[in-house]
Specification:
- Helix content is 28%, strand content 30%.
- The chain is built from 11 helices and 17 strands.
- The strands form 3 sheets. An 8-stranded mixed sheet has the order 10-11-12-7-13-14-16-17.
- β5, α4 and β6 form a beta-alpha-beta unit.
- The longest helix has 19 residues.
- It starts with a strand and ends in a 6-residue tail after the last strand.
- InterPro entries: NAD(P)-bd_dom_sf, Sacchrp_dh-like_C.
Length: 398
């Protein structure tokens, strides 16, 4: 079998490395326009390479994984669909909301081309595991998802932050974020409602509203009155406080300050702090995912907490592991048994709650630290304490 990975950035290189591990007999080809990045990847992981800025025009493998920008991914999907290609395409990039119908329309021409997107840490793993917990709870009261990548120990710079994606971009833009309040989809400001979370072995972190996929509001257990759900980003404490200060000083403004270059204050700040926020080779990162669900099961109040910790490997950073491992599992699941799947899919419609425990066991065997706490309160007897508490290293099947 042959697979093509489009994009030789940090995620694409990590994807190529993990595919080589998972499928030692497959041919893995990395495609990008940057020859230096391709050459380094070929030397490190013995993958094949193709240097081009027009991947949609190439003769692509039966399995294609896009770790490129959304416009590049969209071009590849439409090109494959126009040729009525048969195979599998998985993308880690988020589609623009207005482009989803365009993708679905294009795939009508290629009913045997399965397209799964966006699939990574978030979106992807977050929705898969949220669905897993929701399946085991009869009545839901609240769902909270927190995830993020951090450097351990805390970096010395004021934000306590380093870039984990290898780009110059800083995630400081002010925008709206989705959440569910009383069973209805709502919009709240990003960086709002700052709270803290103690992570064992790491320390106290903060989290705030950010990034929930609006399709979660369509889940029947989350669309009932009285249900609340949100998704948050994890960082070292004081991050939001300093972002607010930078915003007040005008540093994050998006209006051009130089008519000749069109540069904005935010872009100038990103350039000026390249070294400050750049990740050094000797720094260790961890990528964390926490999902907490409160509700009831079997007549008792139930609280479940799932924790995943991804730690750097020698050759792949933790954020690339958290992003790419779900893709590799999905590819393995769909190709391993020759499952006939076509059309457009979100990851959680492929990796269903019944399959999620298999995925968690697979991740644990690849070095991901996974724990689950389950606490059931005997509501029928009216006891004040917790009637039962379980702690599992890997969650069991439903």
């Amino acid at each position: 079998m042959q697979t093509d990975v489009i994009g030789a950035g940090a995620m694409g290189r990590g994807m190529a490395a993990l595919l080589r591990d998972a499928f030692p007999h497959w041919t893995v080809r990395l495609i990008d326009r940057d020859m230096s990045a391709l050459t380094a990847a070929r030397e490190a992981w013995k993958c094949e390479i193709l240097c081009t800025d027009q991947p949609q025009q190439a003769e692509l493998a039966p399995v294609v994984i896009c770790a490129a920008t959304w416009p590049v991914t969209l071009g590849v999907i439409e090109s494959l669909a126009s040729r009525a290609t048969r195979g599998l395409l998985v993308s880690i990039s988020r589609p623009a909301a207005e482009d989803v119908p365009r993708v679905q329309q294009a795939l009508i021409q290629a009913p045997r081309l399965a397209t799964v997107l966006p699939c990574g840490l978030e979106p992807g793993l977050t929705e898969i595991l949220a669905g897993y917990l929701l399946e085991s709870t009869e009545e839901v009261q609240s769902l909270r998802i927190c995830c993020g990548g951090i450097v351990v120990p805390r970096p010395a710079n004021p934000l306590g932050y380093k870039r984990l994606f290898g780009t110059s971009h800083l995630p400081l833009a002010k925008r709206d974020a989705y959440c569910i309040r009383d069973g209805a989809l709502c919009v709240v400001p990003r960086f709002s409602d700052v709270q803290q979370l103690a992570w064992p072995g790491i320390g106290v972190l903060e989290h705030w509203h950010d990034g929930m996929q609006p399709r979660l509001s369509e889940h029947p257990k989350l669309s009932r009155p009285g249900v609340h759900a949100d998704q948050r980003t994890l960082r070292w404490t004081r991050y939001v406080e300093l972002v607010a200060l930078l915003d007040q000083l005008g540093v994050l403004a998006e209006d051009a300050v130089d008519e000749n270059t069109g540069l904005t204050p935010k872009q100038l700040f990103e350039r000026a702090t390249q070294r400050t926020f750049g990740l050094a080779e000797n720094e260790q990162t961890k990528t964390l995912l926490a999902i907490d669900l409160a509700g009831s099961r079997h007549g008792r109040r139930s609280v479940q907490g799932l924790r995943l910790t991804f730690t750097d490997r020698v050759d792949v950073r933790s954020m690339a592991l958290a992003t790419c491992l779900p893709v590799v599992f999905l590819v393995n699941w769909l190709t391993g048994a020759g499952k006939a799947v076509g059309g457009f899919h979100y990851p959680e419609t492929i990796i269903t709650p019944q399959i999620a425990p298999v995925m968690l066991d697979w991740l644990a065997r690849r070095g991901v630290e996974i724990t689950m706490d389950r606490c059931d309160d005997d509501a029928e007897e009216g006891t004040a304490g917790l009637g039962r508490r379980e702690r599992d290293s890997v969650p069991s099947p439903l």
